[in-house]
């Protein structure tokens, strides 16, 4: 691992580099139980056995100082944010909105996470103790807990009401972190290829089979009983949470030819879509273990003047909750494609003009939100591909964003060292 500052390219290709002040990560967990304190499935059987109708639902790292000043002088950016949160002393890599919609959490390059009021910007909790840039922050399904994870693999869980840390653990370099959508079960994937599951705050732990390949991204399926992980070698695997065993593997001829950068699950509890550095997205059936199709997400620009190499990495993928037959892919080249899942034919290709880091949906409408690398969030009607609105104010790439459950508020986290609150009309 090179000792260097995170660059935009390494961030979006999921190949994180550690900061110079980062100590070597320890493979030993902080909790006394360690790897042997495995989850007794009897303890969590109730949270894994879900009802079928359960709801599913990183000073800032800037460019050279003279470049920033030049951008401020030459770029006319209208700030339409209702509030700007500027406590971080570095790039803001992650953000999350609580289920109640009144507080947000952000994590950044300054090794700090903050919990703050989205109406006033007042800090409610400062999460300290991390050893590296915080790349993951996420509220639990009921909003009572917040998980924060840094690049070196140190994870902490905070009780919001008491403003205190209630649990901690240390893995290898962290790639992704997510809560179970109906219980206090936390899942994570690491650069060493391990996948972990913990019951919080009890700390009971389970590890899943490791294949020695970086687990780039992961998600929980709708049934809450299975998880899926995408890997650096282009493969994808599905695990059973109760048994801890591998149940499906998409490798060899079924895999991507380059690392997986993104994945999303369908609410039908069967389909998974993965996006890769190879410029394609693949649709998989997690029940049958078969590939349904491969979507070519490379778009050739109309202009013949561009000689620069185009990055067709499929950085974000998603299924539309309001229109289940629709899937969306977004590339670093700046193209968003709206696909018909059944026919695997593109309905609309949106030329955004910049790459996307993340995709989100309005909770109840077929409205897509895209986090732009130009510092602007965009919203689109997926039925027509029409641009609905732009949310401007940031002066550098949006690295993460989240939307409130009522669809009224958008929180963005940027490479410019700020987080912003936008009101959705």
From TrEMBL:
WD repeats, residue ranges: 85-126, 127-168, 253-294, 391-425
Chain positions covered by the region annotation Disordered: 52-72
A cellular component annotation (GO) from this entry: cytoplasm
InterPro entries in UniProt: Quinoprotein_ADH-like_sf (IPR011047), WD40/YVTN_repeat-like_dom_sf (IPR015943), WD40_repeat_CS (IPR019775), WD40_rpt (IPR001680), WD_repeat_multifunction (IPR051179)
Keyword Repeat: yes
Signal peptide limits: none
Keywords: Cytoplasm, Repeat, WD repeat
Recorded coiled-coil stretches: none
Pfam family, one: WD40
Main location, first listed in the record: cytoplasm
PROSITE patterns recorded: WD_REPEATS_1 (PS00678), WD_REPEATS_2 (PS50082), WD_REPEATS_REGION (PS50294)
Subcellular location: Cytoplasm
UniProt-listed CDD domains: WD40
Cytoplasm among keywords: yes
Function: Plays a role in angiogenesis and cell migration. In smooth muscle cell migration, may act through the RhoA pathway.
Name of the molecule in the record: Angio-associated migratory cell protein
């Amino acid at each position: 691992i090179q000792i260097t500052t995170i660059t935009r390219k390494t961030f979006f290709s999921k190949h994180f580099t550690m900061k110079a002040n980062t100590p070597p990560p320890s493979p030993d967990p902080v909790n006394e139980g360690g790897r042997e304190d495995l989850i007794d499935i009897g303890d969590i059987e109730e949270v894994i056995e879900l009802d079928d109708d359960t709801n599913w639902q990183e000073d800032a790292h800037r460019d050279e100082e003279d470049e920033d000043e030049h951008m401020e002088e030459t770029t006319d950016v209208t700030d339409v944010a209702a509030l700007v949160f500027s406590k971080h002393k570095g790039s803001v890599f992650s953000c999350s909105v609580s289920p109640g919609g009144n507080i947000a959490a952000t994590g950044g390059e300054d090794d700090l996470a903050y919990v703050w009021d989205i109406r006033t910007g007042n800090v409610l909790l400062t999460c300290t103790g991390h050893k590296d840039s915080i790349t993951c922050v996420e509220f639990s399904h009921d909003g009572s807990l917040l998980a924060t994870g840094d690049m070196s693999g140190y994870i902490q869980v905070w009780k919001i009401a008491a403003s205190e840390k209630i649990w901690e653990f240390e893995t290898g370099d962290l790639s992704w972190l997510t809560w179970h959508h109906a219980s206090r079960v936390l899942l994570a994937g690491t650069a060493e290829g391990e996948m972990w599951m913990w019951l919080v705050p009890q700390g009971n732990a389970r590890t899943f089979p490791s294949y020695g390949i970086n687990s780039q991204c992961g998600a929980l399926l709708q049934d809450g009983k299975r998880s899926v992980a995408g890997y650096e070698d282009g493969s994808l695997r599905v695990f059973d949470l109760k048994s801890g065993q591998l149940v499906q593997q998409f490798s060899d001829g079924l895999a991507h030819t380059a690392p997986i950068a993104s994945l999303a699950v369908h609410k039908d509890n069967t389909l998974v879509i993965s996006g890769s550095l190879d410029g394609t997205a693949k649709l998989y059936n997690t029940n049958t273990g078969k590939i349904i199709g491969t979507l070519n997400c490379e778009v050739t620009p109309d202009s013949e003047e561009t000689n620069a190499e185009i990055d067709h990495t499929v950085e974000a993928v998603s299924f539309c909750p309001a229109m289940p037959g629709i899937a969306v892919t977004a590339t670093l080249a700046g193209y968003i494609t709206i696909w018909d899942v059944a026919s695997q034919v593109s309905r609309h290709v949106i030329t955004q003009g910049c790459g996307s880091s993340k995709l989100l949906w309005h909770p109840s409408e077929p409205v897509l939100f895209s986090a732009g690398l130009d510092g602007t969030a965009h919203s689109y009607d997926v039925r027509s591909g029409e641009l609905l609105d732009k949310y401007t104010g940031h002066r550098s790439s949006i690295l993460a964003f989240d939307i409130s459950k009522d669809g009224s508020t958008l929180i963005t986290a940027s490479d410019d060292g700020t987080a912003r609150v936008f009101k959705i009309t």
